[in-house]
Backbone:
């Protein structure tokens, strides 16, 4: 009996610091790693969300931009951090979706992280040069088949979401269309407008100015429903192609092993921020729709996204070693 009491006391003493830290959390500023350079859309999303999230938690977030390796450096930094809730990262479709599916990376996007919650997502949109003689997706597919070897498409780079989404369409529609990878979405859009390529699958925010100007035409969007910004453009699912619910998404993760009370507190505060109408208005600048998920739901979403792109990468022989 005495031995059992000693063991119970020992176990309680080991748990006490964790419980105490969870109850007093957050007691200091939270480091928030954004895996891209400052100034872009992803950075804006992180700063807008953490400003409101910090107020909800009663503690400041310190945003740190760590670019490099397509997000690999940021993932490594987060993975190695103390899992006490004071280091988080803005996980997104590249770091926890397409990159692990197409490259050998030094981290496991599932095992090495604790999912905290989704922030939101924006669809990708199939756009073509405005001079291309097609009005919809069916005509685009027919045009490619009638002009074998003459149609090129651009992407933001090998293994990017813009690359894989088009490869998924090629697989399902049985198309031959040559891939031209660029270093980022801006030069890919510039060459599409100039007629050097004929099609592209950018995020909606990048495409919107050129859709408004009439220099590009939108044929279809990813996601489960039409975008409010281009309501007349159907989803790929509506057009008869399944599996295109994938989005360009942004979420929050920390290192593996974070205390569940801390994760729950972070998630509940984040959900409150995401439900505020003024945040939706701010994120609309990047065509991002807020998307509330529990930690478990977000973890399942990450696993499904990695599985989707891994399956496609194997089928299309897309493996890009670092």
Residues:
């Amino acid at each position: 009996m005495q031995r059992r009491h000693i063991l119970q006391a020992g176990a309680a003493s080991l748990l006490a610091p964790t419980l105490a830290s969870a109850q007093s959390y957050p007691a200091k500023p939270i480091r928030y790693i954004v895996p891209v350079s400052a100034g872009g859309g992803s950075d804006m999303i992180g700063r807008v969300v953490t400003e409101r999230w910090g107020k909800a938690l009663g503690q400041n977030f310190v945003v740190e931009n760590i670019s490099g390796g397509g997000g690999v450096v940021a993932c490594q930094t987060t993975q190695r951090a103390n899992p006490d809730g004071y280091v988080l990262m803005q996980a997104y479709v590249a770091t926890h979706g397409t990159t692990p599916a197409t490259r050998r990376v030094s981290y496991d996007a599932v095992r090495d992280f604790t999912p905290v919650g989704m922030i939101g997502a924006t669809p990708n949109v199939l756009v073509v040069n405005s001079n291309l003689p097609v009005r919809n997706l069916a005509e685009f597919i027919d045009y490619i088949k009638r002009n074998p070897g003459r149609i090129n498409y651009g992407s933001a780079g090998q293994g990017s979401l813009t690359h894989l989404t088009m490869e998924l369409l090629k697989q399902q529609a049985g198309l031959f269309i040559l891939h031209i990878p660029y270093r980022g979405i801006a030069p890919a859009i510039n060459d599409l407008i100039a007629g050097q390529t004929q099609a592209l699958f950018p995020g909606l925010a990048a495409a919107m100015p050129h859709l408004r100007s009439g220099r590009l035409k939108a044929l279809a969007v990813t996601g489960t429903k039409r975008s409010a910004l281009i309501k007349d453009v159907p989803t790929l699912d509506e057009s008869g192609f399944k599996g295109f619910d994938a989005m360009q998404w942004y979420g929050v993760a920390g290192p593996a092993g974070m205390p569940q009370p801390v994760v729950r507190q972070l998630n509940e505060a984040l959900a409150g921020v995401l439900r505020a109408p003024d945040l939706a208005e701010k994120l609309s600048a990047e065509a991002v729709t807020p998307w509330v998920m529990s930690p478990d739901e977000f973890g399942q979403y990450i696993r499904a996204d990695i599985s989707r792109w891994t399956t496609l990468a194997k089928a299309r022989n897309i493996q890009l070693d670092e």
Q: What stands out?
A: The chain is about 45% helix and 20% strand.
